[in-house]
Amino acid sequence: MTLMSLQKRDDLPSKVSAEYIAEVCFSSYARPGLELKERSFMNIAMMIALNRTPELRIHITAALHLGLSEEQVVEACRHAMIYCGVPAGREALSVASDIFHVMKNSTKQETAKMS
């Protein structure tokens, strides 16, 4: 679930969550000390460790849009196997693979439309 989808919902938990995320969480991204890519990389690792697959999808997609490579995402998943366990790393690799596939297909479709 994204911030935008939370903002569109009419229930109290969604509204409070969206407000909290916008005010508290995103403000930390502007702090000095870490680049946005580094924060994004950390988010991937934490979502793997916490077994938060829906959020992992969001953060892997965001990381790729920020310029992290597929290789870097794969390495994060592989490295997580050491500290989070092989099942967690494999699940993360599966999620990453799905995202890579979707992004490649959407790029191919957009290229075909332009031709």
* Helix and strand run: HHHHHH
The span between the termini is 34 Å
Number of helices: 6
What does the largest sheet look like? none
Q: Which of globular, elongated, flat, extended, rod-shaped describes the shape?
A: globular
**CATH superfamily caption of the largest domain:** AhpD-like
Name the structural class: mainly alpha
Helix content percent band: over 70%
Percent range for β-strand residues: under 5%
**How many independent structural domains?**
2
| Low-confidence segments | none
Return the average pLDDT rounded to an integer: 87
At CATH level 3, the topology of the largest domain is AhpD-like
The counted number of beta strands is 0
What's the CATH class label of the largest domain?
Mainly Alpha
| Radius of gyration over C-alpha positions, nearest whole angstrom | 16 Å
Topology:
Blueprint: H1 3-8, H2 12-25, H3 36-49, H4 53-66, H5 70-84, H6 86-114
How is this structure best summarized?
This protein has helices spanning 3-8, 12-25, 36-49, 53-66, 70-84, 86-114. It is mainly α and 115 residues long.
What does this structure look like?
This protein is mainly alpha-helical and 115 residues long. 80% of the residues lie in helices and 0% in strands. One of its GO terms (molecular function) is peroxiredoxin activity. Residues 18-97 form the Carboxymuconolactone decarboxylase-like domain.
What keyword list fits this structure?
single chain; 115 residues; mainly alpha; AhpD-like; globular; peroxiredoxin activity; CMD-like; 4CMD/NDH-1_regulator
